[in-house]
Amino acid sequence: MLPKDAPSQPSEKPRRGRPRGAPDASLARQNLIRAGLEHLTEKGYSSVGVDEILEVAKVPKGSFYHHFRNKADFGLALIAAYDIYFAGLLDRAFLDGSLSPLARLRLFATIAEEGMARHGFRRGCLVGNLGQEMGALPDGFRAALVGVLESWQNRTARLFREAQACGELSAGQDPDALAEAFWIGWEGAILRAKLELRPDPLRNFIKMFVRLFEAGTAG
Amino acid sequence: MLPKDAPSQPSEKPRRGRPRGAPDASLARQNLIRAGLEHLTEKGYSSVGVDEILEVAKVPKGSFYHHFRNKADFGLALIAAYDIYFAGLLDRAFLDGSLSPLARLRLFATIAEEGMARHGFRRGCLVGNLGQEMGALPDGFRAALVGVLESWQNRTARLFREAQACGELSAGQDPDALAEAFWIGWEGAILRAKLELRPDPLRNFIKMFVRLFEAGTAG
Q: Which of A40, A76, A164, B174 stands the most exposed, by the fewest C-beta atoms within 10 Å?
């Protein structure tokens, strides 16, 4: 998912030591990142060409190759930008001290559903999309995608430990394994919501997952 | 996943009323379907070209267009072939009367894991791959993919009803919603196993799902 306010990656030094050029160079980079996120969350990596991105971002080809070595380099920059954006979204829900940990998990699901609804459920998760395409992607993508999922899982495991501390989750559950199961199922739910163009799979998954959470409390 | 013995689709009449041609025409179709399943379960639809399939299947281009109108038509034939193959695999596990319903679910997971292991966890589920790519696929694919998932879910819901009948699953659970949750999570687990090139995500998901199943029994 990619809400309308998805930021582009924070400014980075341009590669290969070239002069930075016009004052709008970092704006061009931001536009490229934004157009890339929009297109790749909807269509994936393989079916989107650089020319398509240039046209939408209204950026000339030379500027693209000023900021990125090639399409693969651009793809890795998109993963990094998406990770930063999405970690912020997770923190907004998971660190909301006014809610119980379980309510924060539900808040995340609501925010995520609203984000998908804004685009008619046509845009999924960049990491899920690229993960599914991994067989056709440059090898460097694998470690980047696994790394992003692990960082989201670590945030989720921290939330689950808080849930244990306040009795919402039984001490017998393994927060790390449960957090991995959450992200396995959540990516599946995003995929299915995108396929069916409706929120029902997200809601079904959360309902089941919360039952698991509560089952743990009873055990 | 696609075990080595994945069959091609049963013979169908060739389209557009052309003469069937050489006696090996249906063999050519089988080879095309087989090569297509192998490539698309690994790389998805968008990144695989018809020429690549022709080369692997050792079939001339004219023969491809004798059997399929275009790549999209070929893609739909692959979905149909995969559905038939996979429904057989599900039935093998889910209709095994020597096992309890829960043990049959575990048997399915074991068979599926073995199938992925045979290809180093590089091949996923055709339906999951294409579902993830839906934003870049012809619109007709959506109904076909949803239809296949629903047929797998119906088989799974029947298994869960048997589980209720024998007390492995509480009467309070909704077998249809639980079956949908299973396929949401299972497709997520296949995606993750393919990304990490290892079986751990499949095992984590089944372990969690079975706990849900058993939690239902206790409730």
A: B174
Highest average pLDDT, of A107-111, A125-129, B208-212, comes from A107-111
pTM: 0.88
This complex has an ipTM of 0.88
**Phi first, then psi: what are they for A146, rounded to 5°?**
-60, -40
Burial A170-207 (b: 16+ CB within 10 A, else e): eeebebebbbbbbbbbbbbbbbbbbbbeebebbebbbe
Is the pLDDT reported for residue B125 higher than 80? yes
Asked whether the beta carbons of B90 and B152 are under 8 A apart, the reply is yes
Instruction: Report which of residues A216 and A181 the model is more confident about.
Output: A181
Domain B72-218 has CATH 1.10.357.10: yes
Please determine, for residue B21, whether its predicted confidence score (pLDDT) is greater than 90. no
Within 8 A of B195 by CB-CB distance, chain A residues are 131, 134, 142, 145-146, 149
Phi-psi region of A209 (alpha: psi -120 to 50; beta: other; left: phi over 0): alpha
> Do B46 and A42 lie within an 8 Å CB cutoff?
no
Which residues in chain A have their CB less than 8 angstroms from residue B215's CB? 211-212, 215, 218-219
Which sequence spans correspond to the domains of chain B? 72-218
